[in-house]
Specification:
Layout lengths: L8 H9 L4 E6 L10 E5 L1 H6 L3 H4 L5 H4 L6 H11 L7 E6 L9 E10 L4 E8 L1 H23 L3 E6 L4 E4 L1 H6 L4 H4 L10 E3 L12 H7 L4 E9 L6 E11 L5 E10 L1 H27 L1 E6 L4 E4 L1 H7 L3 H4 L14 H12 L4 E8 L5 E12 L5 E10 L1 H50 L4 H34 L5 E4 H11 L1 H6 L3 E6 L4 E4 L1 H17 L8 E9 L2 E8 L6 H4 L20 H11 L3 E7 L3 E9 L9
Parallel strand pairs: 18-20
Antiparallel strand pairs: 1-2, 1-5, 3-4, 4-5, 6-7, 6-11, 8-9, 9-10, 10-11, 12-13, 12-16, 14-15, 15-16, 17-19, 20-21, 21-23, 22-23
EC number: 2.7.13.3
GO molecular function, one term: kinase activity
Catalytic activity: ATP + protein L-histidine = ADP + protein N-phospho-L-histidine
Length: about 625
């Protein structure tokens, strides 16, 4: 391209139109620079800076065109400096007046040069993008520096040789060094002993920065320990990535790392506790009967021991509730209290009797614990049970033995009393009468003595019979129990005593629950009913209106048998503690022997029951017997 002739305006215009910047040509009214210099020419780019104002008014001055950049003093100084030789470009910051609504900030570079003493040109170039790109970079660089300084992650940058050329404050803190002690060191330095979780050395070629440099790969979440001199082990979680220059060439790598020592220790502690907990749960699983039920009692899980003892398959248990195993031993109140406790969040402990699918009863020591969800709401119940059937049966047998032993001791005392008192009395009487016979009295006296011997013999026989009745209670203990219908036994006894009832004109009332059954030794039931009804007949008042009421019903696992009369009654204040004793009578009835109530009480107690009496002298008596519905399975605690 040939050089332009600066004194030839035509040549200048052609050249200016081809330039990628704004060109203004001004003519000064004097031989010196003046803000009153008028615009002679503006190329298309210059016109675009000011839109169409330049074309509309060709007599614009420098002052008018460049007014947005500053006041007159500023413009005078600016353009005077531009006219000096070897002047540097000047940056002008202004808002384009035609873009006020857009509020666009513009930055321009200006250069000026004279073409003649009165003609000069100004070059104007929009540098907004370049300027603000530089400012943005500086701002971002400042922000990045602030982030690196304040972030909890340690950050280091290494060159191609692995030398640390940058480290932030967190890196220094984590590595327990000052920043100037870290920089210029090598990341694989032996000053930092780096180990695996098992304590073995961590190979330098497997370090994240080594991989980032040698394989140009990004490494995520690599964990290893690091031990600085005089420091305890620290565990780091490290990310590393290669760094490239503008041309895509590898120039180093950067790594960010986090001190996870506390987290690691916590994880190890949790892991240890989890292992211990798992061992405990495994032991419970192997030794205990375990199930989990929802808040409605529906079984969600049952272990193998639960399946075995229940007799049901796992499929039969899951989705059903524990009522499937209900033995109907515990009252309704027992279950209501249990559910009230666990529903309120309290653990529950107790002994439950269950029944298997095959009908066998088994006893379980049971612990129920509520389980909670993340919102602290009860979501299910964990039941841990232990089979104590053998222990309960052993306790039952022990209690039975103690129960029977107590009864036997009482009987033995009575037995000893009969032997030591009654039989000794008879023996003494016999000796006295025999001595009289040996004295050879007259015939009439001998006959009287023989009659007395016969009477004593009968009394002795009666005493021996009573002893036999007492002993027979023991002998009957081993006899099998049978299901007896109460009303049939009562009617059988009333038929036996029918003559005595009718002769005394006694009215009988029978109020027995329909089809009431009792598992019992039949001879015991017969003896108990016979003794109670015959006693009532024996002590009836011999006048109109005499009655005996016999009632029976089931109540709370027991059968209640009651015999009520309006006979002579008993003064309980005087005789209450002797009423069930042997040979105790309370009226001058020649038929009274004082053995019936003693035998009745003994039989009732052997069955695990009790007998009570309510009586008022001259008004009548009521005897009430409580016998377990199934005496053979009753446990006496």
């Amino acid at each position: 391209m040939e050089p332009i002739n600066q004194t030839d305006p035509t040549s200048f215009v052609l050249f200016a139109d081809s330039l990628p910047m704004g060109v203004f040509l001004f003519e000064s009214p004097t031989n010196q620079f003046s803000l009153e210099s008028k615009l002679v020419y503006a190329n298309p780019i210059a016109k675009s800076f000011f839109e169409s104002d330049v074309d509309k008014n060709s007599s614009l001055t420098i002052r008018e065109i460049f007014f947005p950049f500053g006041n007159e003093e500023f413009l005078t100084q600016t353009f005077s400096s531009l006219q000096k030789e070897k002047s540097s470009p000047i940056y002008l910051d202004a808002e384009n007046p035609k873009h006020e609504k857009k509020n666009n900030r513009k930055v321009y570079t200006l250069r000026a040069q004279a073409l003649s003493p009165q003609v000069f040109y100004i070059l104007l170039e929009d540098a907004t993008k370049q300027i603000f790109a530089g400012l943005s970079f500086q701002e971002k660089e400042s922000q990045l520096s602030h982030v690196l300084k304040t972030m909890i992650n340690g950050v280091v940058v290494v060159n191609l040789q692995g030398q640390i050329i940058y480290a932030n404050d967190s890196a220094a803190k984590i590595l327990s060094l000052e920043i100037d002690q870290i920089e210029n060191k090598y990341f694989a330095s032996k000053e930092w002993k780096q180990i695996r979780e098992d304590g073995s050395p961590f190979p330098s070629e497997e370090l994240p920065l080594s991989i980032a440099l040698s394989q140009q790969k990004t490494v995520y979440h690599c964990e290893h320990g690091i031990i600085a001199e005089g420091e305890k082990i620290k565990w780091l979680n490290i990310n590393a990535t290669p760094i490239y220059d503008a041309e895509g060439k590898l120039e180093g790598a950067t790594a960010s790392f986090l001190d996870i020592t506390e987290l690691k220790n916590t994880q190890n502690t949790i892991g240890l506790k989890n292992r211990k907990l798992k061992a405990i749960l495994d032991a419970i699983e192997r030794s205990a009967i375990v199930s989990i039920a929802d808040t409605k009692g529906i079984i969600q899980r049952a272990n193998q021991k639960f399946v075995q003892i229940s007799g049901y398959s796992e499929k039969e248990l899951l989705g059903s509730d524990h009522k499937k195993l209900n033995s109907k031993f515990h009252p309704k109140e027992f279950w209501e209290k249990m559910w009230k406790d666990i529903s309120s969040g309290r653990p529950w402990e107790g002994i439950i009797r269950n029944q298997s699918k095959q009908g066998n009863f088994f006893w379980l020591q049971t612990y129920i614990h509520p389980l909670y969800d993340s919102n602290d709401n009860i979501e299910s119940f964990l039941s841990i049970r232990f089979d104590i059937t053998e222990e309960v049966e052993a306790l039952e047998n022990t209690n039975r033995m103690l129960h029977f032993t107590g009864i036997q001791n009482s009987r033995l005392q009575n037995f000893a009393y009969i032997v030591s008192h009654n039989i000794r009395q008879h023996s003494s009487n016999f000796s006295s009468l025999i001595e009289l016979l040996e004295e050879n009295p007259n015939e009439e006296e001998r006959k009287n003595i023989v009659n007395m011997l016969h009477a004593s013999s009968e009394k002795l026989n009666e005493t021996i019979t009573h002893l036999n009745d007492i002993i027979s209670i023991n002998q009957m203990l081993n006899k099998p129990m049978e299901v007896c219908i109460i009303e049939e036994e009562v009617q059988k006894t009333l038929n036996i005593l029918k003559g005595s009832i009718e002769s005394r004109n006694i009215q009988i009332f029978v109020e027995i629950e329909e089809n009431l059954r009792l598992t019992i030794i039949p001879a015991y039931l017969e003896s108990i009913v016979l003794n109670l009804i015959s006693n009532a007949i024996k002590y009836v008042r011999l006048k109109d209106g005499a009655f005996i009421r016999i009632s029976a019903k089931k109540a709370e696992g027991q059968v209640l048998l009651r015999v009520e009369d309006n006979g002579l009654g008993i003064n309980l204040e005087k005789h209450g503690n002797k009423i069930f004793g042997m040979f105790k009578t309370f009226h001058k009835n020649e038929d009274a022997r004082g053995i019936g109530l003693f035998i009745t009480k003994s039989q009732v107690e052997v069955l695990g029951g009790t007998i009570t009496v309510e009586s008022t002298e001259g008004e009548g008596s009521t005897f009430t017997v409580f016998i377990p519905e199934n005496p053979n399975k009753t446990i006496h605690f």
